[in-house]
Specification:
The structure holds two protein chains of two kinds.
Chain A: E1 2-7, E2 18-21, H1 28-38, E3 48-51, E4 54-55, E5 66-71
Chain B: E1 10-12, H1 17-25, E2 35-42, E3 47-48, E4 51-60, H2 62-79, E5 82-95, E6 99-107, H3 110-127, E7 130-136, E8 141-143
Parallel strand pairs in B: 1-5
Antiparallel strand pairs in B: 2-6, 3-4, 4-5, 4-7, 5-6, 7-8
Helix pairs in contact in B: 2-3
Classes of the chains: A alpha+beta, B alpha+beta.
C-alpha cells in the first residue's frame, strides 16, 4: 500500500512530506495508529486527517496511492 | 453545489489598502446594491511571555481550502440575498498592523450583507485549512490556534 503523506503547520516541523509503502493500513484509524507509533509527539496533539482532499470525519477505507494530509487545528483569519 | 468555477482567495503577503479601495470603487456601477459590509483582519502585536509578535507567516492546504471556501460561498449565497461577495486571505508573511483578511459582502439592504460577512469570517476561521505562525521580534515563533 502506497500512501503520500503531507503535513502542515506545526506538524510539518517534525513530519516531512513523504511517500510510504506499508502493509496492513486498511483505514484511517489504522493510519492514525501507525502515525502515532512513528511520531509519538502526535499523541498529545489535536490533529485532523484529509484523505484525498476530504476531511476525515469517521473511519474511512484507504485505497492504494492515497494522499493523506495531517493537519493541526486551523488558525486562518 | 454550484457549477461556478473555484475562485482563488489567496494573496501573497499583506492585502494592500489600495486594493481594498479599488475593490470598493468597482461596485459603483452595481446600482442594485444599497449596503456593503466589510471585515478586515489585521495582524495584532500580541505580547506572549514578554515577547512581541512581529509578523504572522501564513500557509495553507490550498486545494482543500479553495474547495471548502467554494462550498461556504455557495451556502452563504443560498442563505442570504447577496449581490456579491469577495474574500481574500494572505499567504506568507504579514507584519503587525498589516491586513491579512478582507471579506466584502453587498446586498440591496444592509442586514443580509452584515450577517453574511460575519458568518463568512466565522466559518472561514473554523473550516479553512490555513495556519498562522506567529513570528516574534527575536525570530522565535509559535503556532497560532483559533479558539
Amino acid at each position: 500500500m502506497k500512501i503520500e503523506m503531507i503535513s502542515f503547520g506545526k506538524i510539518a516541523e517534525f513530519i516531512s512530506n513523504q511517500n510510504i509503502d506499508v502493509d496492513g493500513i486498511a483505514d484511517t484509524d489504522a493510519f492514525k495508529q501507525y502515525l502515532e507509533n512513528q511520531f509519538p509527539a502526535l499523541k498529545s496533539m489535536k490533529y485532523k486527517l484529509a484523505l484525498n482532499k476530504n476531511i476525515v470525519q469517521e473511519n474511512t477505507t484507504i485505497n492504494n496511492n492515497a494522499t493523506i494530509a495531517i493537519m493541526p487545528p486551523f488558525s486562518g483569519g | 453545489m454550484s457549477e461556478k468555477k473555484i475562485k482563488n482567495i489567496f494573496v501573497n503577503g499583506r492585502i494592500e489598502p489600495d486594493f481594498i479601495a479599488d475593490s470598493i470603487a468597482k461596485h459603483s456601477n452595481k446600482t442594485a446594491i444599497g449596503g456593503h459590509s466589510i471585515f478586515m483582519g489585521q495582524v495584532r502585536k500580541d505580547e506572549i511571555e514578554g515577547k512581541f509578535v512581529a509578523a504572522i507567516d501564513y500557509t495553507a492546504y490550498e486545494d482543500l481550502a479553495l474547495e471548502k471556501m467554494h462550498q461556504i460561498r455557495a451556502d452563504i449565497f443560498e442563505k442570504y440575498p447577496l449581490n456579491c461577495m469577495h474574500i481574500y486571505h494572505s499567504l506568507g508573511k504579514v507584519k503587525t498592523g498589516e491586513i491579512c483578511l478582507f471579506v466584502f459582502t453587498s446586498s440591496a439592504h444592509r442586514k443580509p450583507a452584515i450577517a453574511a460577512c460575519s458568518e463568512v469570517v466565522d466559518r472561514l476561521k473554523a473550516e479553512l485549512p490555513i495556519w498562522g505562525k506567529e513570528i516574534f521580534e527575536d525570530e522565535t515563533h509559535q503556532w497560532k490556534e483559533n479558539t
